[in-house]
Design a protein that fits this description.
With 161 residues, the chain is of the alpha+beta class. The chain has three domains: 48 residues; 38 residues, no CATH class; 56 residues, no CATH class. The protein contains six helices and three strands. It has a three-stranded antiparallel sheet, with helices on one face. Strand 2 and strand 3 form a beta hairpin. It is elongated. 3% of the residues are buried.
Length: 161
């Protein structure tokens, strides 16, 4: 069964089965066998054309984990083999915020660069400048206040602020 006309004929005979055509009902087994063969042929051709990467079971996306990922029948496909391999957003947020006090590359008001200070907050590769064009005492006072604000809370039972 290789031509399109033969496939169209079989599909036409299948529709006759549902209409209770006596000739089609007499050939019921032959029509259903042809239908099964057609389905198997289509599936085998799809398997031949499918790339090897897609037909294989994927591995976990975590670096260093070689466990296979179980695919669910519904929903978005899983990327990790288990919840323990999936990265947690909480862990990413726990990277500390660092207060940087440094000299800028240029001075906006003509002062020597060694006399101008910038205060910035940095987490990983992200950086936010809080204040620039400050003198040494102001920059370090602001940095201490930011470190106190961002640092861990005291665990004493002292006076209420």
């Amino acid at each position: 069964m290789s031509t399109v006309s033969e496939i169209v004929d079989v599909l036409g005979e299948l529709s006759l089965l549902t209409q209770r055509d006596p000739d089609a009902l007499a050939r019921r087994e032959e029509i259903l066998a042809t239908k099964s063969a057609l389905i198997e042929r289509i599936r085998s051709e799809e398997d031949e054309h499918m790339p090897a990467e897609e037909s294989a079971t994927p591995n976990c996306a975590r670096e260093g984990c070689e466990e296979p990922v179980v695919r669910r029948s519904r929903g978005r496909p899983a990327m990790y083999c288990s919840p323990s391999c999936r990265p947690s957003r909480r862990v990413q947020r726990r990277t500390p915020v660092v207060v940087d006090v440094e000299h800028p590359e240029t001075s906006p008001d003509g002062r020597p660069v060694r006399r101008v200070w910038t205060v910035a907050l940095r987490r990983g590769t992200r950086k936010v400048t809080i204040a620039d064009n400050l003198g040494w005492p102001s920059a370090h006072a602001l940095a201490r206040q930011l470190e106190d604000l961002l640092g861990p809370l005291p665990h004493g039972g002292g006076a209420i602020d």
